[in-house]
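Table S2 (text version). Query chain:
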Amino acid sequence: MAGPRGGDRRGSPPRIGLAARLEHVVDRHSVRPGAWLLRRTRGRVVRLWRRRALVLTTRGRRSGRPRTVVVQYFPDGADMVVVAANSGLPVQPAWYLNLLDHPRAVVEVEGRTVPVHAEPMTRDEAAAWWPRVLAAAPDYARYPRRTDRPIPLVRLVPLTTEVPPCR
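Corresponding C-alpha cell output:
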C-alpha cells in the first residue's frame, strides 16, 4: 500500500524513473559549462529555445561555501521567479535548501551581477503562478507527475542596497 511519499508502508522512498535520474545527472554535470556559456553570451544562448536562465550563487547551508547552479527563470517585473523542480526527484534541490537557510544570494543575468533576496512563495501564490510557468515552459508539467512533494517557486528580489556577495 502506498504511503504519504509514494513508497510502501515500510517507508521506502518512491521509485525514481530513469528519465528523472538521467535529467538530474545531466543537470548536475552541466553546471560549469552552462554557467560559462550563459556568462559568455549574456544569457542569449537560451533565448534560442525561448527560455531565460540565470547563474545563481548561494551560500551552502552546511559548508558556508559558495554554490553555483544554472536555473531557468521567469521574469516578473524586476523580480525573477525560479522553480525548485529538481527534475521531479523526491527531494528538494540543494540550492533551494541553501536559500531557505541563507536567503541572500547573487544572480548573474543578462550580463549583470545582481544581489537578491529569496522569498519562497506560499502554496497559494505558487499555484496561481504555475500557469505562467507552463505557458513559458510547457515541459515543466512533467515534474509534478514525477513526485509527491510540492514543487516550490521562489521569487528572487533584487536588492537595492549593496550587499557583499555570498563568496
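Notes on Table S2: The chain has six helices and six strands. Residues 123-136 form the longest helix (14 residues).
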